[in-house]
Structure formats: structure tokens, C-alpha cells
Design brief:
2 domains; 16 helices; binds zinc ion; TIM Barrel; two-stranded antiparallel ribbon; single chain
């Protein structure tokens, strides 16, 4: 009987977390790809299609098998070392951070044509909207691919086409009020009314990949400026944390700061003391992860009150945090540090934003009203303008009556 009650209580809080209108601030486009889409795109690669039969899905994690010959063939083209990827994908539980970056390489390799980018962007928005994410900042690294006629600009255009293609939900994505409805006048009552479509605000952050040169990073910042009226509202620094030097990206980040473009930075994924200090001194608008800070750096972070994008599942799976129970969420939450729950890579880590809220409740014992407060607080940290923030606050106010009787 006790077990039955426990199961029922877990189901109830999980459903409540799905119903909660949520704000997602740290979601990589490529890492949020549906497993089914990943397989479908893989099947379009000529040499790979006969091999899809060896695909197995175990516990939500993809398990693929690549024969040595194909691995060598594709690996020799300098795209990716498939033997490495195979080993990583075959893992049924936790992958290390370097292993995850091998998978990212695979995802990036699959998103090198415009149509695929458009499809993935559309589906990612649909998936977040389906679990009541009402504001979504998607981050992605604009890519060049001369063979496919892809420029950084055309890549971002392809992402935007994906946002426009969503039909299951109204997507409010640009900031120049070209939608039929002004952003400042969106009542959002539709959340209580199933007969009307839901709405989701979507904004784009352009990522500087740590493998890029200073010049390429500057191109990305200039592109963000050029596309600021088309839903691009910020810059992110991300990529394999053991690659690259802070000094390489600093001119571009400084340029973004001068242009007034909000910045978020992946910080402390590895214990790189020099870079963590430089990032804290740079003082961006938000930080992601902050896993490997020492006592002095924690002290500085807390005094700066830089909002943190907390990615519980991601940090545990990549070893940035030893376990959910020992995750630094608890320390930051108890210190009332500004923070927001995020997924990082919902596809890669088989999670969702609703699941991240559930994990906080299950692991740290937060009540529904505390979870609701977390969702409300996240609105403060969005990069969108005050009109959008006001609209999100109204939306949460309406939901409060339903969720917090
Ligand atoms: Zn990330």
C-alpha cells in the first residue's frame, strides 16, 4: 500500500511539473534533437542506411553499431572518429564530458544542410512547447559548409524557418513586432482554454564554439547584431572546455558587450582556474554550469550574483557533479543565489525541463510553491525585453490559480 501511494505521489508531482509553465534558458539545438530524428537523419547518409537495422534503443539511450570499415571511411574524411563515437554511444549509463563531446561531433556532422537544421529547429520547439515551456532560448553555433552552400547567416535563417514552420503552437520569435499580435498585448489566457492554441516565446542565442578563431567568433557576434530584429538576442560561449584559450574569444565577447548584446558563458565545466577567474572578472549576464569552482571563486560568484543556468542531469551524467544529492544546486539555492533550471541537451541526456523540476523536488524536497517560485524567478533572467517578461509573469499568474489552489 505504501509503495502504491509512493508511485501515485510521484506520478502526481511529475504531472504537476509538466503542467507548470516553464522558462528554458540553456538548450543547445543540436543536443535537443529527438532520437527518432537522429536515426532518420542517419538513415539518409548513403553508406549508413543499410546499417540502421543494428540500431537498438536501450533505456532511452541510443545504441548504434558502426562497422570498422565505415568508421574508418568517414573518420578518414576528418569529420569524426567513428570508432570513438561507437564506444560512447554503446554506453548504457553515464558518459564522461569528453565522451559527450564525441557525440556532439556526430550531431554537428548530421546538421550540415539547411533542411535538416530547419527540421530540427521545428521539432525542438514543438517538444519544448508540448511540455509547457512558454519561453525558450535556443542556442546554436552558426556553421559554414561551403559544399552545401551554407554560410553562418543562411544557417541561422534555416533555424528561423524551422520556428516559422511550427503549427501545433503559436511561436512568437521575433522582436520587431511583425507578428500579427503585438508581444506586449498577449493575454495568454489560452493556457486555461484548450480550445485555443498555446504560445511559446522563442529566442536565439548564437554560440561561439571554443574551436573557433577570434575572427570567426567576431563574425558570430556581428551576425547576432545584424539579426537582432529576427529573434537573435544573445551570445553564448560553449564547446569542449578542454579546447581553446579564453584570450581567443575575449575580443568577440568584449565586442558583444560594447554592442549591448547579452552574454552567457559555459563556466567551470573543468577546473581551469585561470579561465574561471577571467570569466568571473568579465561578469557576463548569465553563467552555465559552474561545476568546478573553488572556495574563493564561489565567494566571488555569490557576491557578483550572476544568474546560473543549472543543468542537473547534464552535470551528473558528465561528471561535473558527483551525484544529484551532492549537486551544487543545494548550496546556491540555500544561498538564495539567482538560478534557473535548464536541460542543456534534452536529447543527449534523455531529460526534459519538467523532469529537471521533478528531480529538484525528489532530490532536495522542494515543495510545489518553491518549484513555482523557481519558475517565476527564471523570468527575471531571460534576455528578452520587459514586454515579454510582463507577458510571462501574467501567464504564470493565471497558471498559479490552477496549480496552487
Ligand atoms: Zn551547454
Amino acid at each position: 500500500m505504501d509503495t502504491e501511494r509512493k508511485v501515485a505521489a510521484e506520478k502526481e508531482i511529475r504531472e504537476w511539473c509538466v503542467a507548470l509553465p516553464k522558462v528554458e534558458l540553456h538548450a543547445h539545438l543540436n543536443g535537443s534533437v529527438r532520437n527518432s530524428t537522429l536515426l532518420s537523419v542517419l538513415s539518409t547518409i548513403p553508406h549508413l542506411s543499410p546499417l540502421i537495422s543494428v540500431v537498438i534503443v536501450l533505456s532511452g539511450l541510443l545504441v548504434l553499431d558502426f562497422p570498422a570499415e565505415l568508421a574508418k571511411q568517414l573518420g578518414d574524411r576528418g569529420v569524426i572518429v567513428f570508432e570513438d563515437v561507437k564506444d560512447v554511444i554503446m554506453k548504457a549509463d553515464g558518459r564522461s564530458l569528453p565522451e559527450c563531446f564525441k557525440l556532439f561531433d556526430l550531431f554537428h556532422m548530421l546538421t550540415t544542410d539547411h533542411d535538416t537544421v530547419t527540421r530540427i529547429a521545428k521539432e525542438v520547439v514543438e517538444d519544448f512547447a508540448a511540455e509547457n515551456v512558454v519561453y525558450l532560448e535556443i542556442r546554436t553555433t552558426p556553421k559554414k559548409n561551403a559544399a552545401k552552400g551554407m554560410t553562418k547567416r543562411s544557417y541561422v535563417d534555416a533555424v528561423i524557418r524551422g520556428l516559422k514552420a511550427v503549427e501545433s503552437v503559436d511561436v512568437l520569435f521575433d522582436s520587431n513586432l511583425t507578428t500579427s499580435e503585438p508581444l506586449s498585448c498577449t493575454p495568454m489566457t489560452e493556457l486555461d482554454n484548450d480550445t485555443r492554441k498555446k504560445k511559446i516565446y522563442v529566442r536565439l542565442l548564437l554560440s561561439i564554439d571554443r574551436r573557433e578563431t577570434t575572427s570567426a567568433a567576431l563574425d558570430t557576434v556581428n551576425l547576432a547584431m545584424e539579426m537582432k530584429d529576427q529573434g537573435v538576442i544573445g551570445i553564448d560561449l560553449s564547446g569542449n572546455p578542454v579546447v581553446g584559450e579564453w584570450e581567443t574569444y575575449l575580443p568577440a565577447l568584449q565586442h558583444a558587450k560594447e554592442l549591448g548584446i547579452p552574454i552567457t558563458i559555459h563556466c567551470g565545466e573543468v577546473p581551469n582556474r585561470k579561465e574561471i577567474q577571467a570569466v568571473l572578472d568579465f561578469c557576463p549576464q548569465r553563467l552555465g554550469h559552474v561545476c568546478c569552482l573553488n572556495d574563493d571563486e564561489w565567494k566571488q560568484l555569490k557576491s557578483l550574483k550572476i544568474p546560473i543556468e543549472i543543468c542537473l542531469t547534464s552535470n551528473v551524467m558528465t561528471g561535473g557533479a558527483p551525484s544529484l544529492e551532492l549537486h551544487h544546486f543545494a548550496d546556491l539555492y540555500n544561498a538564495r543565489h539567482p538560478l534557473s533550471l535548464c536541460t542543456d541537451d534534452s536529447g543527449l541526456f534523455s531529460t526534459s525541463l519538467s523532469n529537471e523540476y521533478y528531480l529538484v523536488a525528489a532530490t532536495f524536497g522542494l515543495s510545489k510553491s518553491e518549484l513555482f517560485q523557481l519558475a517565476q524567478d527564471a523570468v527575471h533572467f531571460v534576455f528578452a525585453d520587459d514586454d515579454v517578461k510582463s507577458s510571462l509573469r501574467r501567464m504564470l499568474k493565471i497558471a498559479e490559480k490552477r496549480l496552487m489552489p
